[in-house]
Request: fold
Amino acid sequence: MAAELGRVGVWSLKHLWDDNHERAAELEELGFGTLWLGGSPGGDLTQVDDILANTRALTVGTSILNIWTDTPATAAAAQHRIVDKFPDRFVLGVGAGHKEIIEPTTGQTYERPYSKLADYLDQLDVPKHDVAIAALGPKALKLATTTRGALPYLVTPEHTAQARETLGQGPLLAPEQHVLLETDPTRARELARQALGLYLGLPNYVRNWRRLGFTDDDVRGSDHLVDSLIAWGDEDTIKTRVEEHLAAGADHVAIQVVTPDGGLDFDQYRRLAAALL
Reply:
């Protein structure tokens, strides 16, 4: 068996759930199938146990556990512990992270991340249907076919269509989608650009956007890029974007709610659940 994700889940930075394990039950009641913990959760993954213990059927996934900071043995031990206690409710998402973050924080030389990821998967003693990888480019997407599938981040429905073509019809494709319930264009783009600020300086995302046809001006944060990556507007507008991903071949879409302070906004989750679920 493999964990069921549902059509729509929630992507949220892990630290927002440190003291909110019980709030995950509200996401479950609203109908979201999966909670994805972003921001490189630590390898012991005790936070996952806490969230699963406070819910009945919600799936939890890591998006992503960083292969530079946690060994395959550490990740496998955590995964086995979790699935023994909570069968078919956990997906171990792993990925290579970013040179700009890895080298200053770990002291490791960030070389050949694709090879590092492939080697990590070879050493990871976890059933392949319980593992997915962060994948954007064609090589990483091909590698994802050796696991349950791919977890692309900050992508468009056009990327989803290309990813599905690369993956074929079997593997999981679960893109993340930033969303914002704000109908004023000026305010929406202000908040959206704030949310994108970090990523505009990360080359792997910029390269992926260029592959999708975005220009030099776009990748510096144009309105076109902002509008393409972050679905803002009313509930129907966001529903349309989610449905575009599903129509393009996604099995599951993980929405990330943009807020002014970067915190949790359960009012938006409730409104979006009513529209999407």
